[in-house]
UniProtKB/TrEMBL annotation:
Matches recorded under InterPro entries: Nase/OxRdtase_comp1, Nase_comp1_CS, NifE, NifE-like
Keyword presence, DNA-binding: no
Limits of the Nitrogenase/oxidoreductase component domain: 46-445
Annotated metabolic or biological route of this protein: Cofactor biosynthesis; Fe-Mo cofactor biosynthesis
Function: This protein may play a role in the biosynthesis of the prosthetic group of nitrogenase (FeMo cofactor).
Alphabetized NCBIfam families for the sequence: nifE
The protein's name in its UniProt record: Nitrogenase iron-molybdenum cofactor biosynthesis protein NifE
Any coiled-coil regions, as ranges: none
GO biological process terms, semicolon-separated: protein-containing complex assembly
Gene3D superfamilies: Nitrogenase MoFe cofactor biosynthesis protein NifE, C-terminal, Nitrogenase molybdenum iron protein domain
Source species of the chain: Rhodoferax fermentans
Record's keyword terms, sorted: Nitrogen fixation
GO MF, one annotated term: nitrogenase activity
Amino acid sequence: MSTLLKARIADVFEEPGCDKNQGKSEKERKKGCTAQLAPGAAAGGCAFDGAKIALQPIADVAHLVHGPIACEGNSWDNRHSASSGPQIYRTGFTTDINELDVIYGGEKRLFKSIREILEKYDPPAVFVYQTCVTALIGDDIEAVCQRASEKFGKPIIPVNAPGFAGIKNLGNKLGAEALLDYVIGTVEPEFTTPYDINIIGEYNLVGELWQVKPLLDALGIRILCCMAGDGRYKEIASAHRAKVNMMVCSKSMINIATKMEKRWGIPYFEGSFYGIGDMSDSLRQIARLLVQQGAPDELLGRTERLIAVEEARAYQRIEQYKQRLSGKRVLLITGGVKSWSVVAALQEAGLEIVGTSVKKSTKEDKQKIKEIMGDDAHMIDNMTPREMYNMLRDARADIMLSGGRSQFVALKARMPWLDINQERYHPYAGYEGMVELVSQIDRALSNPVWQQVRMPAPWGDDGETLGAVATSAPQATDQQATRFLSEVAAHALGLVPEEVPA
């Protein structure tokens, strides 16, 4: 690992915004708040993966992976981060280095790749991602990017986050450092208003940002830039002129918020768009900070009037589901901001949370869970699939909300499951998103397929096997065999035994 990368990692994890870190001495503070996993133990993804996830939703730039083609993966449907315009971010660009490049170096190939992208696609910028192989052979992507930028007259941004540097969360922060070092503050916006804000750590999954933007538009609040969902290069480059920063996922890009406050005096707060109460609190926080920064006081009154209308409308629509959902138990396997924000959202619908995972959550996230659920909150640090399966089979939960990796555990336990992570196809942010989330949970729980799959098998569910039935079958008469097959068909059709034809 290069000295420059080591210094950047140490700087990233200084984390002055962390309450725990603020109580440390200057020497201890540099050790950071998060213990890094050793290479090879990067659970949930590597540093390169984290950097790519954090920056790829910037929709109008080309994202070039300098490494073997396998590192590129599938960009076309990456995390369902939606764009309102450009689609170049969904095109996979890679230098696809080979054995000769490992021997002689891949810097010339990288330079040629940058030139080809600019000639064919003409994006406003190119982001170049370092990978393990090219970092190990010593390719200096910073020098290549600087030379290419001078040659072609366009910003070429190096993202030095090779996979072996650490876990995915570290890659999120290294990607954020690339924005701070090479992008933010390099362009002045065409105009500014007293109502300009940045939203940081929001990725516009399945268009969730678009459910929040109309609310801000109704208040006259302008999103100067979103990092990085549906983002544009020039908007992010001019983000230093915003009046307020909202931090959506502190686990990924908190270093942007803290350093923008230090460099440009932009205050920030951490909020959530999940749940009616949290959505309203976020609107209030934005309005309050904007007024502190010079916006007219009447913004506070307009915000409260909008909240009153939207909350009444949302609660009225949720009421139709409450009778069926009240008392239903939910097992929540997710992480980060969703570990507490989704809890509040589900409780508003009358659901009971039997447990929420905190594997990817910060100390602040865990504290908020305690505030919402009380001291007896069941926080799951690392539940194994077997424990998850036993919990569902013992009926300690009625439905599981998680990412796609856990869905088969729920299906094996013959329990409803709903995707709550980035691969989902339904937006759950804002007031509209809360109604959609409750609707999807109701549909999952009410699906008649669960009644079918839980029916006892015709050959018994008490330890008998198909083999035992097959062994006794040859000794049965033709009439008995016919009766047996009729009963099997009856169970499949949901008929009672009396309705089975003789």
